[in-house]
Amino acid sequence: MCAEHPFTHHVKTAQDAAAFVIEVGNPNGVLLLDIWHAYRGGTPYATLPALVPPEVVFGVELDNGLGEVVGTDLEDTFARLQSSDTEIVQDPTDQPYGVRDCAVRDPAGSLIRIQQLS
Predict the structure, then answer these.
(1) pLDDT at res. 58
(2) For residue 84, which phi and psi values (nearest 5 degrees)?
(3) CA dist., res. 46 & res. 104, Å (int)
(4) Low-confidence ranges of the chain (pLDDT < 50)
(5) How far apart are CA 64 and CA 103, in angstroms?
(6) φ, ψ for residue 115, nearest 5 deg
(7) Whole-structure pTM over 0.85, yes or no?
């Protein structure tokens, strides 16, 4: 499981993600702990070892997140991508179907849309 909190669902913190994996109880259920999302979700780095039991952690993703959070989750993600060599296709835009999103291309040329619900 890769829980991209706080973006898309009921899992808002690293602690919530760990509790979810433990509650499900599947021996193959583990977390890829994303440091940037943990920080963005309000979890201080120093508290992670006490909040997330190591037996539920498959790996830790070390991100290139900016030192300062910039606006909303979408705006912060966009600013991080903009500061890299990512191809920007569309700046954050309010869509008529109820989401605010942006679009980028990955190195293989695939279009990736990133959205934040309104």
Answers:
(1) 86
(2) -110, -170
(3) 32
(4) 1-7
(5) 19
(6) -130, 155
(7) no
